Amino acid sequence: MLKMTTKLRRVFGSKLGYLSFLYLLVFSILPNLGGCSAICRYYPEGLYYNYEPVYLSWDKLRDVESLAARAIQEAGKIYLHHNYLLINEPQKGIHILDNSEPQNPQKLSFIAIPGNVDLLVRDEVLYADNYVDLIALDISNPSNVTLIKRIENVFSETYAGRTDPEKGIIIDYEEGDPISYPSAYFCGQVVYDASNPPPARPTVSQAGSLTRFAAMQEVLYTIDGSALQNFNIADPRDPKVLNRLPVGFGIETLFPYEDKLFIGAMQGMHIYDASTPSNPQALGSINHIQSCDPVVVQGNLAYVTLRGSCFNQANRLEIIDISEPSTAKVVNNYLLQEPYGLGIDGDYLFVCDGDAGLKVFDHATEPDNLSMIRQFDEVKARDIIPFENQAIVIAENGLFQYDYSALPGGNLQLLSQILIPESP
């Protein structure tokens, strides 16, 4: 018993977390105990661990460098800009590749950007998050990228509780010394010394599977926690803060389409009228089970993948009729295994289904007739950019590029691959 409870305390990291777990455990079984009015358990003396924050200083946080090309160790978001392919390495920076020949992409440089997760390019200016800051970089010469503007603390909600004005930002926690925990009886209530609460073990934050940045005309939209943070980019080299629009809990992804902005959230999809880009207005929303969900749109249909593994729910594709945004409705759904990003081009829908691979569906414009025509289970797909018969797929295990001009016959030709992680 002592070994088991000590192990649980190590998992939950603190007395409060441990006892909260016991509280939930006890009351989750009460309905099955046939009228028991109380449950008391004895927990012997044990240990729990204190966790100390590790800070990255403000100077180091804002140390952005243009470096020589290097091996890709992990891949996050992807962005295609003319003949350049940009690949985010989560929390580290952005690789720039010359993709003028998709059969043989060439790494040109690496921009070291601490805390980077998202990116977007307008003209020859790259916008990227640098932990709490938004930065603008001139990438006209990929071998010598230069910082042209920084707007500080625009992602403050994303990093709420993780910054210190003197020390910087918390990037990790270190296990400290064990602290003795006395024996106690537990009777359906959390018992601890409120005057000296133990430190809680940190949780890990992760970005969504598709971009949190989008642009329409002269406006850049970014997600910060539960809000859209908007910037005027009429002069791409001089972005200015416009306004902040509260949207709701758990917003994750952005997809601009025509004069509308589609916002994927953990509990649904929001539709905004962006015909006046600087002042988007809510048109409607649709709720679903709590899950992780990117969205793409074509015509009057929105396609949403729900990755239930985030919350132990079902994994599926939903097709939503958005012809009347205020009354958007699901018209069909299809079971998947572990969906992430997706893309659409005409009749073809490409779904990145995690360990199940890249799945290609036909008849995307006919929700009742959607059918899978190809599956590449060797590609642990995460995100995709389909355009002009070329598909760029970023996966857990590499970057893959395909020619899908022969898809009417069910064929997809592999043009090139870069296996990740690469050898240094």
Describe the structure.
This protein is mainly beta and 424 residues long. It has three helices and 34 strands. The chain has helices spanning 2-12, 15-29, 58-61; strands at residues 41-43, 46-56, 65-68, 78-81, 84-89, 93-98, 106-112, 119-122, 125-130, 133-138, 146-151, 163-164, 168-181, 184-186, 213-216, 219-224, 227-232, 240-246, 251-257, 260-265, 268-273, 281-287, 295-298, 301-306, 316-321, 329-335, 342-345, 348-352, 358-362, 371-376, 381-387, 390-395, 398-403, 413-419. A five-stranded antiparallel beta sheet has the order 3-7-6-5-4, with no helix packed on it. It has a four-stranded antiparallel beta sheet with strand order 8-9-10-11, with no helix packed on it. Strands 15-16-17-18 form a four-stranded antiparallel beta sheet, with no helix packed on it. β6 (93-98) and β7 form a beta hairpin. The radius of gyration is 24 Å and the shape is globular. It starts with a helix and ends in a 5-residue tail after the last strand.
Give me some keywords for this one:
single chain, 424 residues, 4-stranded antiparallel sheet, 3 helices, 34 strands, disordered N terminus
Give a quick summary of the entry.
By secondary structure, this protein is mainly beta.
Distance between the termini: 47 Å
How much of the sequence is in beta strands?
Answer: over 45%
- Structural class call reads mainly beta
* Count of alpha/pi helices: 3
Which range best describes the helical content: under 10%, 10-25%, 25-40%, 40-55%, 55-70% or over 70%? Answer: under 10%
Instruction: Write down the oligomeric state.
Output: single chain
Strand order of the largest sheet: 3-7-6-5-4
- Rg, rounded, reads 24 Å
Query: Would you report the number of β strands?
Result: 34
Low-confidence stretches: 1-40, 185-209
Rounded mean pLDDT score: 82
Q: Major sheet: size, sense and barrel closure?
A: 5 strands, antiparallel
